[in-house]
Amino acid sequence: MEKDQNSSVKPVPVIELRHVDKHFGQLHVLKDINLQVKKGEVVVVIGPSGSGKSTLCRTMNRLEPIDSGEILIDGEVIPEEGRELARLRAKVGMVFQSFNLFAHKTILDNVTMGPVEVLRKSKKEARQEAMELLKRVGVDSQASKVPAQLSGGQQQRVAIARSLAMHPKAILFDEPTSALDPEMIGEVLEVMTRLASEGMTMVVVTHEMNFARRVAHRVLFMDGGSILEENTPEEFFTNPRTQRARDFLNSIQNH
Amino acid sequence: MSGKVMTAKDALYEPPGPRTKKKILIGTVLSLLSFAFLLALMIRRFYLTGQLDPKYWFFFGRLSTWRFIAKGLIGTVEAAFAAGAMAFAAGFAMMLGRIGKSRFLRFAATVLVDFTRGVPTLLFIYFFFLVVPQFGWKLSAFWKITLPVAISASGLVAEQLRSGVNAVPKGQREAALSIGMTDRQTFYRVIFPQAIRYVIPSLIAEMVIVFKDTTFAYVVNFPDLMQNAKVLISNYDALLSIYLVVAVIYILINYSLNRLSTKAEKLLSGKQKQGS
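YS: structure for the whole thing
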């Protein structure tokens, strides 16, 4: 095996954004974003609402189109449409604020859908693996129910199992606990923490500062469509560099 | 979003208080009385004009009469189901055009939907009855009635299906795309199965219109219930009694369709509730 210097010194980032720009009409929601997420890294994105953090998360698997720039998954540029886009999307899981479990399918079928339809696995194999995943997130006893019968926290854990079933290189979390009651937030964060400790590459948009402090390897602070600060969590929470970040941290500590 | 489903009825309906209950009771009694009065009046008119004469009713005691009516009923049911199935297929295709990416197809589908919804069924029937044969295209009576009825219903079906597709929360689509499903898989595996559940009740209700439209079969001489009723009428010279019986049959069919639609609505909304 030939080991060229480039790849041994600098492994390909799992997710890379190059000069990404995006407008919503007049509003410039993402301004020249450059970002690399390395394998095994947990990147937490925080910022006030409207800062573009959720949009940033959603552009990473191109659920949101971009105006210019490039997004690379595993070193491959994501195209605008077509099979190739679907293939690259399958490599990156996504967990939504509103869970978005398939309402007409059972919990088990929610998890097997991707492996069966996209990875073309046999139903039997997919089911077996799905049950293991559901066990891992603690909802295996609910496998034959439909999503509406589960609590929000349970639904979100199923959503995590659903993305894990695709064996993704990374998982994007778009405010995964914002729609949950306080007592359910803990159970979801616990699953996420465990994933992080197992080495999963994660991008997490969240307002959970304690989670960011404990789990993140890197914190991105966004405001007005730009990444204003990139720092380790210790540095960011104790000694933020920008005034905007200081104001933001003060405002959330005050309530 | 678990818990009891809020239907429009729950949201708009306030349980009546004691005074309102009293008013409702008075209203019920009054309307029942006037209904009974009108019925008595009608029967009296029948009696006075001789419509209750046995010569208008005796043939209902014959098995052959009922067999003939049953034959017509089968014709009606066949035509209605054939037309319904074709309307669904055509409506589905038009809906795909309307929600698709191609500008031209969107335009074409919109024109078709508006055209089929806007033209009365009878005109379509005349087209297949009078115009099409002139081009040397021989159609049987069955197709002369089912094709126009299907075309006439297809635009409505297309719009109902589209409203169902639009009612599926957009998060469902995003979730499907995010696990790597193609647009096609997303539509057929996730969006449409949910959309059809939303609109099954209104599609069943739509069948009522299709059933009623098949009564135009007499125009093209297709032996449906209405056509056979006309034959009986000329045989026995008994207009009112036969139309009355036929009307009751149509009411029974359409009433059970409406019941089925309500049942389906309850069943489906109970099962699925809102997309989370």
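YS: worth flagging: The radius of gyration of chain B is 24 Å.
IM: good catch. Also Residues 63-99 of chain B form the longest helix (37 residues).
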